[in-house]
């Protein structure tokens, strides 16, 4: 065979670097959102933190260091509020599991799933004041729920007057009123789940608990993390309306939460600096709890 000089390889075209305008375009697009977040969120947060180190009353505007935080730690009401935060953390898996299981049933198309989708979301559009007023009547000592318990032979329960029961009653009402949003998020997560995995589990004869554990939960790991975080934030920052209408922080301050404590200090006792310190403490609690939840869920996902 004749041989000849091999042709030199064609030069590889280097990708053309974008112009300066193209490189800056993404930053220009996100700049308005960043400015809004800084102006309406981060800057007021920084002002609140700074204000928490000043005094109230005659010491208004005077730096007092950590005195407000020492006052918080010495206040039994604030310690009760923090204890109730711990209770909310323990109840959080239940608050997440309820919409998760309902979303699973709807996704698996149980009979009437379209009706259930609308019915479950309906409470989410109601005002907390309206929900609180309705359940104050239902859970009253002489209310319909205790009448129903009497019919089946169970004694009446002082749902809103017993310090050991009231916080559970209010949290239960909050979960009922708000889990519709988490249900929507779970349904959106199901739309990203590979249906072939469910089909394979069904063909292999996997039971529903096995399908939940080995297919649905790993497939919705990021959705579950998001719902955990948003549900916890909602519990810590969106229960004021229910507390105000249903218990007023009672009985015996057993239903105090940090946001209700903040309102009392600011709105009733005119102690804005102490309220700012409590707000800062609430922010730190939410941050630590959120980071801990994400860490635990990620570790569980890797082990799964």
TrEMBL record:
Source species of the chain: Saccharothrix syringae (Nocardiopsis syringae)
Domain of life: Bacteria
Compartments where located: Cell membrane
Principal cellular location given in the protein's record: membrane
InterPro entries tied to this protein: MetI-like (IPR000515), MetI-like_sf (IPR035906), UgpAE/MalFG_permease (IPR050809)
Pfam families per UniProt: BPD_transp_1 (PF00528)
The keyword Membrane is annotated on this UniProt entry: yes
Protein name, as recorded: Sugar ABC transporter permease
PANTHER family per the UniProt record, alphabetical: BLL4140 PROTEIN (PTHR43227), DIACETYLCHITOBIOSE UPTAKE SYSTEM PERMEASE PROTEIN DASB (PTHR43227:SF8)
Domain spans labelled ABC transmembrane type-1: 77-293
Protein family: Belongs to the binding-protein-dependent transport system permease family.
């Amino acid at each position: 065979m004749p041989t000849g000089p091999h042709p030199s390889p064609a030069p590889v075209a280097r990708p053309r670097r974008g112009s300066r305008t193209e490189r800056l375009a993404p930053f220009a697009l996100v700049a308005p959102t960043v400015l809004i977040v800084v102006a309406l969120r981060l800057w007021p947060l920084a002002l609140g933190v700074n204000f928490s180190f000043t005094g109230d009353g005659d010491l208004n505007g005077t730096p007092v260091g950590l005195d407000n935080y020492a006052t918080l730690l010495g206040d039994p009401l604030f310690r009760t509020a923090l204890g109730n935060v711990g209770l909310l953390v323990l109840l959080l898996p239940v608050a997440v599991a309820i919409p998760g299981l309902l979303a699973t049933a709807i996704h698996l198309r149980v009979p009437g799933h379209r009706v259930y989708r609308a019915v479950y979301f309906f409470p989410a559009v109601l005002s907390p004041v309206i929900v609180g007023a309705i359940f104050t009547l239902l859970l009253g000592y002489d209310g319909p729920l205790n009448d129903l318990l009497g019919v089946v032979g169970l004694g009446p329960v002082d749902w809103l007057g017993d310090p050991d029961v009231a916080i559970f009653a209010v949290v239960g009402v909050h979960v009922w009123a708000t889990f519709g949003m988490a249900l929507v998020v779970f349904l959106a997560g199901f739309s990203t789940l590979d249906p072939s995995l469910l089909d394979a589990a069904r063909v292999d004869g996997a039971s529903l608990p096995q399908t939940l554990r080995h297919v649905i939960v790993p497939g919705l790991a990021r959705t579950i993390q998001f719902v955990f975080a948003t549900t916890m934030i909602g519990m810590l920052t969106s229960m004021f309306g229910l507390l105000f209408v249903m218990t007023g922080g009672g009985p015996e301050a057993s239903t105090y939460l940090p946001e209700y404590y903040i309102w009392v200090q600011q709105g009733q006792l005119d102690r804005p600096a102490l309220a700012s310190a409590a707000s800062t403490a609430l922010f730190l609690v939410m941050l630590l709890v959120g980071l801990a939840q994400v860490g635990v869920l990620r570790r569980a996902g890797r082990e799964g």
